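User: What would this chain look like folded?
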Amino acid sequence: MKLEPNPITPANQFHAALLAATTKREIVDIMYKQLSTQGAFSDMPDGLFDKLQKVRGQN
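Assistant: Here's the prediction, encoded as structure tokens.
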């Protein structure tokens, strides 16, 4: 199985997206995408995904 490419967003686009975000959910989604492209969640401990989803759902 071949995975889809998930390139790292350039810093200027990442910062612009954060500035344009209007809700906590948008900010969490942007941060999560940026961190996941860098492998920050490759060894995620139990419960972290659920915690991120809970924070993501709050506005």
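The radius of gyration is 13 Å. If you want, I can go into more detail on any region.
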